[in-house]
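Why do we bother with a discrete structure alphabet at all? Because it lets us treat a fold like text: something you can write down, compare, and reason about line by line. To make this less abstract, here is a complete entry for NAD(P)-dependent oxidoreductase. Read it the way you would read a sentence in a foreign language you are learning: slowly, and without expecting to understand everything at once.
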Amino acid sequence: MSDSAGFLPTGAVLMDPGRPAVLVTGATGYIGGRLVPRLLASGHRVRCLVRNPERLAGRNWPGVEIVRGDVSDPATLDPALEGVHQAYYLVHAMADKSPDFREQDLRQARTFAQACSRGHVRRILYLGGLGDPTRKRSHHLASRQEVGEALASAGVPVLEFRAAVIVGSGSASFEMIRHLTERLPVMVTPRWVNTRCQPIGIRDVLAYLLEALDHPDLSGIFEIGGRDVLDYRGMMLAYAEARGLHRIIVPMDVPFPRLSVHWVDLVTPVPKAVAGPLVDGMTTEVVVQDPRALSAFRVRPMAYREALALALQRLDEDNVETTWATGLAGGPEGMELGAHEGMLLERHHRHVKARPEAVFRACCALGGEAGWPAGNWLWQLRGLLDRLTGGLGMRRGRRHPRNLRVGDPVDFWRVEALEPGHLLRLRAEMKLPGHAWLQFQVRPEGAGSRLEQTAFFDPRGLTGLLYWYSVLPFHRFIFPGMVRALKRQAEAGM
């Protein structure tokens, strides 16, 4: 099975148009974004229900049917489920940064279940959370299991997989472990690092989800986990060993255990809204109690170190398919640039002695670990201010250091439009009194190219206007400097 998204692997089975459609919700997310190409490679007819189809515009998924809709809106669910025999439910309100994600998850699951019943869907496939329901569970894990019950409430059979930590490049749990281990030589941690867990590799999770379609009459709960049972301390030490790092972890009773959430928020790219439920879940033991999945499915899960090695390989190769931030809700959607009166803009342009492809490559390499070529410390300061006001800041980084596709996060921007070699438009997802975009256009000019960079701002009321004029002095330094830097990089043959 290929680990690359965006094309059908060699030897892929051609899709049979006569087969019933398989619906995938959450296709813009971490799991769904990896599952869809594997479904296509197996010859399935795939339909994706997404709130914002534009986020899938950069995916090369031949034959996929994309339907605009929302799992909380029955009016959009009914047409999306027409002709569907099996439906994957891979959405989670936590990704929307909702403070009441537990209640929102339940409402959405019940709405989806009722629509599946009306549409005569034969089965719902769901990925939930591992944890003994007879014992005290974290709110996060209890919510995941309650969603499974809500999906079954309308009488449609549900096949529910329950998993613990998913080990894969870009997953939120993995990124927490990775950054804590790499950035902190000595860690004084709460006692939850001694909680037992049975992590599972992302490849194995996808294999279970895919093989489930081969067992159309199978329903119920199946607990899935990797070959190893570890505590979180052991997982971090194994990561350190794989990276050749020496780390000291000291578990102890701390007076305010919730401070660990703020520490994760500070040290790792994972924001508090996501880290909170994850850390909460780490206080609950998540180990497979019922091994029936091993007899019902052909999947033979790998060991933790093997899954870890594969995740690190993907990171080292810059070959990360999806990340925790891929499906994270951000700013407003569906707004047309320039469609509103009162739009403020600042434009800069340069003639570049390089081919348009070279100029466009330089534009597509902005942000992430490479930073921003003019006033990077100001960008970082703006990201810090955004975090202090409840935003994501610069922590999301990039999926790939050079390649972009529509829907990709780039620090506190998201790729809204991408025309290879010609146009890149980023939409701001920071906290703002208005809506902002940063656009790059490249076209041939003489023996070289013309690079045009435009910052757009649609202010909201007087506060928006005051904000724009207050940051203009910084724009006068940042934006001209960025155009000059991109010109130099392109002419240097980047």
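What the structure line is telling us, in plain words: DSSP finds 14 helices and 19 strands in the chain. The CA atoms of residues 365 and 401 lie 6 Å apart.
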